Amino acid sequence: MAVEPDFEYDLLERLTEARGVPGYEDRVRAIVREELTPHVEDLHTDAMGNVIGTVEGESAYSVVVAAHMDEIGFMVTHVDENGFLAVDPLGGFDPRVLKAQRATVHTRGGDLPGVIGSAPPHTLDEADREKTPKVEDVRIDLGLDAETVEERVSPGDLVTLDQGTEIVGEHVTGKAVDNRVSVLALIEAARRLDSPAVTVHFAATVQEEVGLRGANALGVDLDPDLAIALDTTVANDVPGFEEREYVTRCGEGVAIKLKDSSVITSPKVHRRLAAVAETEGISHQFEVLPAGGTDTAGFQTAAGAKPVGALSIPTRYLHTVTESAHLRDVGATIDLLSAFLDGETGEGDYRL
């Protein structure tokens, strides 16, 4: 590849290819626990499934670094008389990209392969061709007779979309790049952190895709002095968009969030992030996201007013199975997060 990643690519592949929809992040959680254990002094999982690895600092001042583990998916609601599965979405899908996708149904008896079918175009009339697709119209075909499906599948079983993780040019692409690439950054930063001046909680959170629920709970339970969230963000630097609509550009560095529809980050925090990036020569850009939210908002007010910042990894084709992030931007995110934590003394004043 033209760009050699300065992080453990094999770990990113494991994280992205693991399955974990909101509320059922078990497979991802197991990887996170395994990878964090050697690098933290305390590791625990709370009642919601958030994983928290703590590195004790010289002071009681505490910083939370959070990245969500969950990916968008579905929950089975019904098996029809012909053995096709109706589903309810877990997270936001664009229904236009769901047709002709392969899927896996996760049952108590094991995983079953399936497909989301698409009618051949030459069998559709003009009205069908022009019909706007809806997520509620999705049906999963397991290729089995109805009786067998009834025996093996139950309402509440989970569905994820299938796609391997690949290097495409200088990008990593696949399903669940949102947000496993940030989980990787969290783990890499924990590996690098040595004798911090402040206590750092590395938190892999749950249920972000359905309302920042894990972060909201952790904001109360941990009550940090400062929170930094990690997530992917929109990179519309592709045909069909005007430059003003790009939000971020792939390959131009980590994005320092200024706002999204859920949060306006603390000015003193994002200014310090930018100052560290300038001092360390880390490529960076600024993010103003018109719509969408991240765990940042979950920490800002959950236990009273808190200073918050966020680092985002520019990503094309979000909420599809071909999400695509530039390898250099991933490396820049890890570098800036690590440098920021190394320099945090707890003595700065983030109040406005």
TrEMBL record:
Pfam families: Peptidase_M42 (PF05343)
Binding site for Zn(2+) 1: H68, D178, D231
InterPro entries in the cross-refs: Peptidase_M42 (IPR008007), Peptidase_M42_aminopept (IPR051464), Peptidase_M42_dom2 (IPR023367)
Residues binding Zn(2+) 2, per UniProt: D178, E209, H319
Record region (Disordered): 109-131
Single GO biological process annotation from the record: proteolysis
Keyword Cell cycle among record annotations: no
Cofactor(s) listed: a divalent metal cation
A GO molecular-function descriptor: aminopeptidase activity
Sorted UniProt keywords: Aminopeptidase, Hydrolase, Metal-binding, Protease
Record flagged with keyword Nucleotidyltransferase: no
Cofactor binding mode and count: Binds 2 divalent metal cations per subunit.
Active-site annotation: E208 (proton acceptor)
Similarity comment text for this entry: Belongs to the peptidase M42 family.
Protein name: Cellulase
